Amino acid sequence: MRTQMKRTHFLCLGVLSALVLTLPASLPAQTAQTERWLHVRVESVEGKGELVRVNMPLSLAEKLLPAVRNERLRDGKITIDDSRMNGVDLRAVLEAVRTTRDGEFITVQSNENDVKVVKKEGYLYVYAREKKEAKDSRVEIKVPMTVVDALLSSGTNELDVLAAVRALSQHGDAELVTVKDNKQTVRIWLDSKNTSE
Question: pTM of the prediction?
Fold first, then answer.
């Protein structure tokens, strides 16, 4: 579970970091008030209390994603190693979830981890908590099902991040990802503001 939490955390940060690294030195001011902005805030609670804020209009992310080319991210798509899927057809699973009624689909409670997957009112929620003596890590993800569909609209071993960004731009204000542990707090959200809190 801990490895899965780290993968989710690093996937979000990796995509956003790749976008930030490709930003030009100066960006034109946005004039449209309906522009959707993706915000990332990473706050360290250790040491110097470092803080990272990323505020990016989705229209900019949509233009930059095709320009990023590295080992796994190319043309706005992330390649997934089939061996990491452990024989699970992710698209078939999500299609089954998408076409069924709202409900709590998975609940796992153990001495080490709690995991819950819920579909409610057009959103897929994933809650994960790692319970250790010295730390209490929590991950909360809220994704519109239309964004999940867009993410999985590409080939069998790809996640179409560009399509997901386009689908996300059609949604209102939303808290998307929250990660909290004893070292840092990560928050990813969407709104129409060009600055973060």
Answer: 0.71
